[in-house]
Amino acid sequence: MLASKVLVADDDEKIRELLELYLSKEGFLVEQATDGAEAILKAQQLKPDLIVLDIMMPVMDGMEVCRQVRKFSKVPIIMLTARDEDEDRILGLELGADDYVSKPFNPRELVARVKAVLRRTPQGKEELSPRDAILSFPQLTINRQEYVATALGQTLQLTAKEMELLWHLAAHPGRVFSREQLLESIWGYEYFGDTRTVDTHIKRIRQKLGIQEDTPWDIKTVWGVGYKFEVRP
Fold it and tell me: Rounded distance, CA 80 to CA 100, Å?
């Protein structure tokens, strides 16, 4: 089995070397980028399996790098920042980041998050039979194998996490999931009690689905509990 390739993009040499040390010990192949422009170039050329991306970088910041990378790749991205601000976290998730880690961080924890994210990307999943890979509802089709969803005649541009979250809910219509359950199922670890990331993803999914009052299905908020996918009668 080929080792997964991780691109570490950070202008701090000590952080790059530290992460390469810990990731290499776990069997990952590690490439480095020192600024945003180099990060985009290497993402295009090397096609890494995951990118660890610092927000505060010269030439081009991590947010813009994430925005540009999402134009040509769905590679999982873990954002790093020295600022623990909601605005950064929410913007990063909206741009398509899969995870978010604040500095200073424990390198073992970051390695664990890299493994968790990779386990939940398409290349880390077993092949599904065509029958098991597709969910169909009136005017909505979700193809888990190809990571494509079509709603109301439009093909949706969903991030990997948005796709997984939509599939998880739609695969159990009518069942209510708490935010904590969704965090565990989709992200695969305790997100330090920060259930707001679920709310952010649900909001983005609903917007992309274009849900209206007459739409045949909905992602309903169950106040005080969580969310459920509901097919309207």
Answer: 6
